[in-house]
Description:
It is a single chain. This protein is an alpha/beta fold. The chain contains 5 helices and 13 strands. It has helices at 34-45, 81-94, 181-196, 244-250, 253-258; strands at 3-15, 18-28, 53-56, 100-103, 126-127, 131-134, 139-144, 151-153, 159-161, 203-208, 219-222, 234-240, 259-263. Strands 1-2-3-4-5 form a 5-stranded mixed sheet, with no helix packed on it. A 4-stranded mixed sheet has the order 6-7-10-13. Strands 8-9 form a two-stranded antiparallel ribbon. Helix 3 (181-196) packs parallel to helix 4 (244-250). The longest helix is centred in the C-terminal third of the chain and has 16 residues, at 181-196. It starts with a strand and ends in a 16-residue tail after the last strand.
Amino acid sequence: MLRSLLPLAALTCAQNATRIEYNVLIVGDVHDDLDAIEQLRLHFSRQSRKCHLLLCTGDLTTMPHGDVEGCAKHEATPHTNAFVRNAAKAAQALATLAPLVYFVPGALDPLGLYEAEARLPPGQPRNAHNTVERITEKLWVGGWGGATAPFERDAHGKRRRANESTAHAWDGAWTQFPFDERENARRQQPWRRKVTSVPAQDAVILLTHAGPDGAGTSLVTAKDADSVERPGEVRARPLHAGSIALGEFLAQRAAQQRVVLHAHGRAHAALGVARYGSA
């Protein structure tokens, strides 16, 4: 299943006293669906309006993981080579859609994609996890992959784990991978400083797999949390699929001053567009 979050959005940035429009395609949750990528390629080949930048929010492939406590270990995620190849095929297919492609690994991607040596050669899609890169003089991309455990709040506002999924038959859960919430917040600190060190007059696009907790696109209100087309009736308690750490970061004044767009995946049934402050 490939989700096209924003078929073609225009992002306008001021650069050297002129305004430049970038056409941005946002896709996510590819899950090995190369046919859907090819359909997108054929669709845009018939359009006069071209895509300048593609952002992929993760889950290039569908590798079953167990939940982690702290951080994932290589010895706990064996037999990854086939999934690394699958992820590479999806990334290379995405490269046919735009001249510049960034992706972050999702909760169902191999652990190796979270490591620095997983960067692909020049000209290939850019693995944006734990990076902040300048695209043009005034526009940057900052990426963070992975996802933490979804939760609900009880009648007293207390968080409780709410693992459920109709898509992942191996464990019936949305996987927390490769970091839990506490480890995620700890590891993000250097990356956050890079984002907030971008000049305040520049624009930053955040590209993550999980969204920020508190945004409407991270809050699943449908009973079928995995369905895009037919999510079903309203669930008794909303499912918080976003990251608390990301929500806290995006709420900071320095982030609000710089982030003009936050593209994320993870919450299938919460597909759409929402505001989180000014972002």
